[in-house]
Amino acid sequence: MSGPRPGGVTLVAVLAWISGFFQILTGILILLGGAAGGATLAWVAILIGAITIIVSLGLFRGNNAARVVVAIVFVLNLVSAIITMFASPSQLWSALIAAVLAIIGLVLLFSQRANEFFRG
C-alpha cells in the first residue's frame, strides 16, 4: 500500500461494508420471521453479507484481490443493467442508475491514485 487511501476507495469500501451489514441483517430477520422455505435464502444472504464485509475490509487495507472481486461485481452489475435496459424497458431508469453506479465504482477503484494505493 502506497500512501494514504484515496477517498474514492474509502467510499467504495464503506458502501460495500454497509451493503454486507444489511445483507446479514436481512438474513437474520428472515430466519427470525420463520418464513416457510426462507431458511436457505436467509443463510445465502448471511453468507453473501459476510463475504461482502470481508472484501470491504480488504479494500480498506489496500488488498488488490479485494479490488478485483469488487471490480468483477461492478462489471457484472453493468452487464445486468444493460441487459435489463433492453429486456425490460419499464425498468430503464433503475437500470441506468445501476449502470452509472457501476461505472463510478470502477472509475474510483481504478483511478491513478487508487492504482498507486493498491500497487504498494
From TrEMBL:
The organism's place on the tree of life at top rank: Bacteria
Statement: the UniProt record of this protein carries the keyword Membrane: yes
Keywords, ordered alphabetically: Membrane, Transmembrane, Transmembrane helix
Bilayer-spanning residue ranges: 12-35, 41-60, 67-86, 92-110
Name of the protein described by the UniProt record: Integral membrane protein
Species the sequence originates in: Agromyces aurantiacus
Organism lineage: Bacteria, Bacillati, Actinomycetota, Actinomycetes, Micrococcales
